[in-house]
């Protein structure tokens, strides 16, 4: 809850995501059958309900009554573009364009990193890179991962 409120106070639009149980399963109704544990929105209308209102965000998290929840940040509403690098191909591609990317906040994910940049662009899938923008969202720290770790700022 504290992280979600802090992101809202920063002006980033957040959404509650399903969480990850201690056994690595999703808290959604699919449980062990979920193909993206802890990485999908709790609400279907999340593009409209995403909020940077700290009071509303607090209300959401307090209503969960201890159920594990992850934090999502909606890119476009937050004036963010997030570059998602998940594999060796992404690392190679990033090396090719590194001189064009300003210093920026980074998040360690299970398979790679997210680079948080200010601005607006179209979402895109490039060889090795996934550009999250517009109505795209990212899972934010300190959200739980299926491997037992957490997303974390680096």
Question: Would you mind describing this structure in some detail?
Answer:
- By secondary structure, the protein is α+β, with helices and mostly antiparallel strands.
- It has one domain.
- The protein contains four helices and nine strands; from the N terminus they run H-E-H-H-E-E-H-E-E-E-E-E-E.
- It has helices spanning 2-9, 46-49, 54-63, 88-97; strands spanning 14-18, 69-74, 80-85, 106-108, 113-118, 124-126, 129-132, 137-140, 152-153.
- A six-stranded antiparallel β-sheet has the order 6-7-3-5-4-9, with helices on one face.
- Helix 1 runs antiparallel to helix 3.
- It is globular.
- The chain starts with a helix and ends with a strand.
- The model has no long low-confidence stretch (mean pLDDT 93).
How is the secondary structure organized here?
Layout: H1 2-9, E1 14-18, H2 46-49, H3 54-63, E2 69-74, E3 80-85, H4 88-97, E4 106-108, E5 113-118, E6 124-126, E7 129-132, E8 137-140, E9 152-153
Antiparallel strand pairs: 1-2, 2-8, 3-5, 3-7, 4-5, 4-9, 6-7
> How do the helices and strands follow one another from N- to C-terminus?
HEHHEEHEEEEEE
When the domains are counted, the total is 1
Strand content: 25-35%
Label the overall shape: globular
Instruction: Characterize the main sheet.
Output: 6 strands, antiparallel
Strand order of the largest sheet: 6-7-3-5-4-9
SS content category: alpha+beta
The termini sit apart by 20 Å
Helix residue percentage: 10-25%
Low-confidence stretches: none
Structural Rg: 15 Å
Overall mean pLDDT stands at: 93
| Number of continuous helical runs | 4
């Amino acid at each position: 809850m504290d992280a979600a409120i802090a992101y809202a106070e920063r002006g980033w639009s957040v959404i509650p995501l399903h969480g990850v149980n201690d056994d690595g399963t999703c808290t959604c109704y699919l449980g062990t059958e979920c193909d993206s544990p802890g990485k999908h929105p709790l609400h279907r209308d999340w593009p409209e309900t995403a909020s940077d209102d700290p009071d509303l965000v607090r209300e959401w998290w307090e209503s969960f009554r201890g159920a594990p929840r992850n934090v999502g940040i909606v890119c476009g509403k937050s004036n963010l573009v997030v570059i998602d690098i998940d594999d060796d191909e992404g690392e190679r591609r990033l090396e090719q364009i590194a001189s064009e990317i300003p210093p920026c906040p980074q998040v360690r994910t299970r398979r790679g990193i997210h680079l948080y940049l200010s601005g607006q662009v179209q979402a895109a899938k490039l060889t090795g890179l996934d550009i999250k923008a517009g109505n795209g969202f990212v899972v934010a720290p300190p959200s739980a991962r299926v491997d037992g770790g957490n997303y974390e700022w680096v």
